[in-house]
Amino acid sequence: MHEIKLKAADGAGEFTAYVWEPKGTAKAGAVVLIQEIFGVNDALRATGEELAAQGFIAIAPDLFWRQKPGVNLTDKSEAEWKQAFELLNGFDQDKGVEDLKVTLAAARKLPRGNGNAGTMGFCLGGRMALLMATRSDADVNVSYYGVGLDNLAPEFDNIASPLMLHIAEKDEYFPADAQERLLDALEDNEWVDAFIYPGVQHAFARVNGVHYDARAAVIANGRTTELLAEILE
Predict the structure, then answer these.
(1) Which is it for the CA torsion 58, 64, 68, 72, positive or negative?
(2) I need a surface site. Which of 6, 83, 156, 210 has the fewest CB within 10 A?
(3) Its Enzyme Commission number (predicted)?
(4) Is 166 among the residues known to form the active site?
(5) What stretches of 136-200 adopt beta strand conformation (E)?
(6) Residues 89, 99: contact at Cβ < 8 Å?
(7) Do residues 228 and 29 touch, judged by C-beta distance below 8 A?
């Protein structure tokens, strides 16, 4: 893993993006990896390493840089949860999208890149991945247990590239009625595949997370890898 610096589109400064590259010298597709409310933490870094092992370039921007650069929290303590929600409440999602667009453009120009790039996000990042599907030219977008996705319905007509949604049936932050509204709003959208994972809670695929569910995570990750390989290679 190495770090690069990117200039924010609004002129507010520079932010760090963390890059993982596959072995060898062959060109590869890039995945913009979008953090949870815990920052670019150890769990997200493990996901970056896994994507690189699968033959992709992974690049994870520090989206909380305007508030506190270098956030690396876990879901294991009340104090960390409190800090994470404070960062979430202070986060400007529109500016976050612009930072992700900058990262996406950089991903396409990485020396090892083949020019193809998509996004993959978890929790907050899952919501941001859907926003990238509606507001950017990413080649593919993958959302894991995004929150409040149903209230983005006015933007759904802008989706023009493959979008995969992984939804936890028992998600405490995205209840059944909201899930139903989301699926109804996307019913006729040919670009979207949505999967609901029975009996699991929010963050079922978080590496070493308190709600990690191995079977659901393996199934979801397999679907993701297949889609990314199809679109980015």
Answers:
(1) negative
(2) 210
(3) 3.1.1.45
(4) no
(5) 141-144, 163-168, 192-197
(6) no
(7) yes
Instruction: Give the residue among 187, 195, 3, 38 at the shortest CA–CA distance from 124.
Output: 38
d(CA 127, CA 130): 5
Q: Name the band, by pLDDT with cuts 50, 70 and 90, for residue 195.
A: very high
**What is the 3 state secondary structure string of 96-124?**
HHHHHHHHHHHHHCCCCEEEEEEEEEECH
* C-alpha pair distances (Å), 89 with each of 82, 86, 92: 11, 5, 8
User: Which pLDDT tens digit goes with each residue over 3-27?
Assistant: 999 999 999 999 999 999 999 999 9
Task: Find the mean pLDDT for residues 56-76.
Answer: 97
pLDDT per position as a tens digit, 160-187? 999 999 999 999 999 999 999 999 999 9
Of 75, 202, 211, 213, which residue is the catalytic one? 202
pLDDT tens digits along 103-113: 999 999 999 99
End-to-end CA distance of the chain: 21
Residue with tokens 């809670």: 201
Is residue 156 pLDDT above 90, yes or no?
yes
Q: 162, 135, 136, 145: which is closest to 228 by C-alpha?
A: 162
Please say whether the dihedral angle defined by the alpha carbons of residues 126, 132, 134 and 138, taken in this order, is positive or negative.
negative
What is the domain partition of the chain in residue ranges?
A: 2-232
User: Which residue carries 């989706």 as its tokens?
Assistant: 159
Given CATH 3.40.50.1820, say whether it is the number of domain 2-232: yes
* The pLDDT of residue 207: 86
With a cut of 90, say whether residue 188 has pLDDT above it.
yes
